[in-house]
Design goal:
alpha/beta, 6-stranded mixed β-sheet, elongated, two-stranded antiparallel sheet
């Protein structure tokens, strides 16, 4: 069974403090770029006051600000802008390979999930969390409000990472509401029983309404294993064991195959307008999270 990590190992006080600072920075940026990428044709708009302009004949007189007229003796109408209530959907791969033999992958994945949820909740957006294994399971109903971050942390801290992920079935089963614009983050290593299963599953994403992001979490040794000689390897999700004699040339061929897998996945994502970012489990979280936001997302207010 995967090693158990305590809540404090994942989300200590300093981590949450850094998230609060980051949320404040993004909130200021959002105020300067209010429409940006949040302007969408979906339902669920609200109206926010933007500015005044002079009243002109033939306009609806009901738009006149009569209080301002009483002070200035001039006719002005109030201008509004429509803002979209965004819905963040986090799909988290809970297969064994996300925790074994490298538990750092699970830690990195969960930190990204909490950080994304925190930014959305602090901006009064709705957050839903799902786990992916043999099928998709909704771990939390849609939550709204910064105070709900503890519910998110508690829920994902208790997730069991076990078994295999059927990416194709999960992507077919997952159907975000078409009534509300969604920002969807899939956090996974995208490893399947067959090497092409992830790229085949991406085609299902084109049916999802909204903005889609794939975060691939890998450990450096998964790309470049430090192995050589006679070995017995075990597949962590199926338990299958095989004996090998690995040479340096064999390892190099493996690296080339792994890189081709990642490149094909990135190419398939691009063809379906899905943002793809590969993240190493040993990279500094804050640095890579900012990299993610800089790539552009409505969650970051058009960062």
């Amino acid at each position: 069974m995967p090693e158990t990590l305590e809540r404090e190992d994942l989300f200590d006080a300093s981590f949450l403090d850094r998230l609060r600072v980051l949320a404040l920075r993004l909130r200021k940026r959002r105020q300067l770029m209010r429409r940006g990428s949040q302007s969408t044709p979906a339902t669920g708009f609200t109206r926010e006051f933007k500015d005044y302009r002079h009243y002109t004949p033939r306009e609806d007189y009901r738009a006149i600000d009569w209080r301002l007229y009483a002070r200035l003796d001039k006719l002005f109408v109030r201008l509004y802008e429509e803002t979209q209530e965004l819905n963040l959907h986090i799909l988290l791969d809970t297969s064994t390979s996300m925790a074994q033999p490298f538990p750092e992958k699970r830690r990195q994945a969960l930190r990204f999930a909490v950080a994304l949820a925190y930014l959305a909740l602090s901006a009064q957006q709705r957050v839903s969390v799902y786990s992916m294994s043999d099928n998709v399971h909704q771990e939390l109903p849609p939550l709204r409000g910064q105070g709900n971050i503890e519910k998110v942390i508690q829920a994902i801290s208790k997730l069991k990472f076990d078994g295999q992920t059927n990416m194709k079935r999960c992507f077919e089963e997952y159907r975000p509401s078409k009534q509300r614009y969604g920002i969807i983050f899939v956090i996974s290593d995208f490893f399947g029983h067959e090497i092409g299963s992830a790229t085949e599953a991406v085609s299902r994403v084109s049916a999802w309404p909204g903005e889609n992001h794939f975060l691939q979490i890998i450990h450096p040794e998964e790309r470049q294993p430090e192995l050589e000689g006679e070995l017995e390897l075990a597949e962590v999700e199926t338990g299958e064991r095989r004996r090998f004699w690995l040479t340096k040339k064999d390892v190099q061929r493996y690296v080339e195959t792994f890189d081709a897998f990642s490149e094909n996945l990135a190419r398939e994502c691009a063809s379906h307008r899905v943002d793809f970012l590969q993240i190493s489990s040993n990279e500094a979280f804050e640095e890579r999270f900012l990299d993610l936001l800089v790539r552009g997302s409505a969650l970051a207010g058009g960062a």
